[in-house]
Each structure stands twice: as structure tokens, then as C-alpha cells.
Amino acid sequence: MRLAKKLRKNKFIYYFICLIVDIYSSFFSFLENFFLKKRTSEYHFQKTGLFKFNFEEDLKDILNLSVKFKDNEYQSTRIISQRDLKKVLNLIFNKNTREKITQITGFKYSIDHFQILENIHSLDASYKRSPHFDKSFSRNMLKIFIPINIDFQNGPLKVWEKFLFLEIKNKNKFNEYDPKLLLGQGNYIYGFNPNTCFHQLGNPDLGFQSQQIMIQLNPSLYWCFKQDLYKFQEFGESKFTSLSFLFNKTIKFI
Ligand SMILES: [Fe+2]
Q1: Claim: this prediction has a pTM higher than 0.70
Q2: pLDDT on residue 128
């Protein structure tokens, strides 16, 4: 009886937190749409919350200079120096990429998190790799993924398109819907809104590993990156970034 009461109480707290997070998300999405949106986003992106385009630059040389830092048994982060990170950001977010992303989404962005992730096969398939959406963010937060060596065996990231969001949330049956697989050999840039698209980190087959770049972008007045971005490569992403980005010191792309 006491336990049931406790659980009911916890459930109440859980739903209350969900409500606060939802209000935060709606409020900042509204502000960003009103003050920061430069143009209407492309119809396909409005519907799917996902885009992909070719990437011509070669990142492999710079990535080879990275140092491996083990996060846990199944996942590592590769750290690069401040100088190399600046080079990588300027290569990825060259004028062409920035214009393409703004044309698709309607926003300019601040780059607030950068991480090179390496995964190996996890024996516990559910370990941190369950389908989810990123709750404590605005609906406009954008994740950029660049798969470096990802084929079907390397456990590609799965993304369920935005128009499936409510169906999946209500039924919680992921198997009924086919996700998009983020495959590539450093030749594609993918972007999606993780607050409105369910996604799941893949599990590489036994003996395979995956390497991909993951970047978090938040709407901003101009294209820039967080000044101390390199310091936070080995840490997880910060949450409630629409609020915290207001106080970030940033460097503008030239
Ligand atoms: Fe996520």
C-alpha cells in the first residue's frame, strides 16, 4: 500500500517533469520561430524532420590525429585538438554547407556540441541504445551526423521521420515503422530534429565498429560555434541549450 502510494507519487512527479520540459520545448520553439527563423523551411524537411546531402571534403586525415577516450565498455569518443577542431568545423560548415542547411531548415545556427563517436558491438543490446527523442530541447534543435565508416554491419543510426512521431509515441511500436538508416563513408551530411524524430543508435555486428561525427546545432542570429567547444568533446551534451546558448561566448564563421 505504501509502495503503491510512493509509485503514484513518483508517477505524478514524472508527469509533472514531462509537462515542464514540454512547456520549455514549446516556448523556445515559438521564440526561435518568431525571432530567428530567416525563411520558411523546405516542405520535405517540414514533413520528415530529416535531410541528407553529399559532402565532398575529406575529413579522414584530421580524424586520424584524434586520441581515443573510452566512455564505457561499448563506446569511445575521439578527441581532437582545438586547432584541428577549428579546421574540421571550417571544412564541414563551409559556406556551401551553411547555405544549404539554412535553405532547408530556415535557420542559422550556433554549434554547441561536437563529438566523434566510436561504437563496438554491445552484448546488452538495450544499453543506452533504445529508441527515444531528445526531450529537453527546442523542436528546432538540429543534429548533424556524418557517418565515417557506416555500412549495414556497422550499426547505422536509425531515424524515424517526423510524420510518424505521434503514431510511435502513442503506440510505442517501433517495429511497425521502417526507420531511415544513416549510412555513409564520410560522403554524406545528415541532419534531423531529434526532438521531433525518434532515433536509436545502432548496434554494430560482432567484430565491427562504427565511427561517426555528431554535432548539435541550436538556432542563432548568425552562423557561429561555441568558443570552448573543444573542452566538452568527451562530455555528454548539455541539456536545455536554448536557454544556455544565450550566455555562450561564440566565434562567428567568416
Ligand atoms: Fe538522442
Answers
A1: yes
A2: 65
